[in-house]
Amino acid sequence: DDSKRLSPARREELRPRIIEIVEAWHVEVVSPAEIDAVAADHGLNRLEADRMASLVDRCRGDVTYCDAPGPPESFAELLRARATWRTRLVCRSRADSTYPAVAAASVLAKVARDEAIERLASAHGEIGSGYPHDPKTIAFLVMRRGAFPSFVRKSWGTARRLTEAARPG
């Protein structure tokens, strides 16, 4: 099911079991600067399609299941246009709740994210979870008064609001 419903400890416990049974897997990391660069111009769906296409080409499955970030048919078209490996695409909203392969991929991605957050916290102190509802994350950003470190997405709505609130006048 949805990896966000699992505790970090449970995701970490599942990771080696998933890796043991899958034929191929890879996690694509997208930097905050890259997200900021495309967010205003192209939107995140294109970036996600580009990165998923890279995964499709790398893993080379007969069938590819993916969680569509927007309308599934539109996202499938974006993905088909970008992937060179020909696969049967099954794109659905909330696919992690329907397809075990997508749920497993979600767990692997979330463990990679959890590890990245741990590394950032080790280097920068308490940063929270990085999610917009997290008071620790908001407190970390508020303390920066709009001067955010490079690991913060400047295009993120929470960061934009705090930057505007920090401006004088």
In short:
By secondary structure, the protein is mainly alpha-helical.
Question: Would you spell out the secondary-structure blueprint of this structure?
Answer:
Blueprint: H1 8-21, H2 32-39, H3 44-59, E1 63-67, H4 72-82, E2 88-92, H5 100-124, H6 135-144, H7 157-166
Parallel strand pairs: 1-2
Helix pairs in contact: 1-5, 3-4
Descriptive notes:
- With 169 residues, the protein is mainly alpha-helical.
- It is built from seven helices and two strands; from the N terminus they run αααβαβααα.
- The protein has helices at residues 8-21, 32-39, 44-59, 72-82, 100-124, 135-144, 157-166; strands at 63-67, 88-92.
- Strand 1, helix 4 (72-82) and strand 2 form a beta-alpha-beta unit.
- The protein has a two-stranded parallel sheet.
- Helix 3 crosses helix 4 (72-82).
- It starts with 7 loop residues before the first helix and ends with a helix.
